[in-house]
Amino acid sequence: MLARELEKIEQGGPMSRPALIGDIGGTNARLALVTPGEITPHDIINLPCADYPGVIEAVHDYLERVGATGANAPQEACLAFACPVHAERVKMTNNHWAFSKVMFGRR
Asked: Quick one: CA torsion of 47, 51, 56, 59, rounded to 10 degrees?
């Protein structure tokens, strides 16, 4: 299995692109990228949640700001939300954001 993942990296597959990471709270969405094989996040930006209609718009804005769109767009993400995420529909506890996990994953 590891050999297949390394082959993907060598061929410029999804593992060769930085992954999106984030801490989504009630006030701010803290987003960054992590390059495979490294542990230090880069392109860290705090976005005020009140400035965006939803998490998808905030993520899109972040990716545009750091130039991670199109062929450079992350294909993997790990986001922590300050609310329960057990149901398919997620409603943030301390802000106006709500989203479908399925729809979020498709974008």
From this structure: -20
26 within 8 A of 49, measured Cβ to Cβ: yes
> What integer pLDDT is reported at residue 33 of this predicted model?
97
Q: Is the pLDDT of residue 20 over 80?
A: yes
Catalogue all structural domains in the chain, each as residue range(s) with its CATH number.
17-106 (3.30.420.40)
Distances (CA, A) of 61 to 38, 74, 90: 24, 14, 20
6 burial via Cβ count (<10 Å: 0-12, 13-18, 19+): exposed
Residues constituting the chain: 107
Q: Is 102 exposed, middle or buried (0-12, 13-18, 19+ CB in 10 A)?
A: exposed
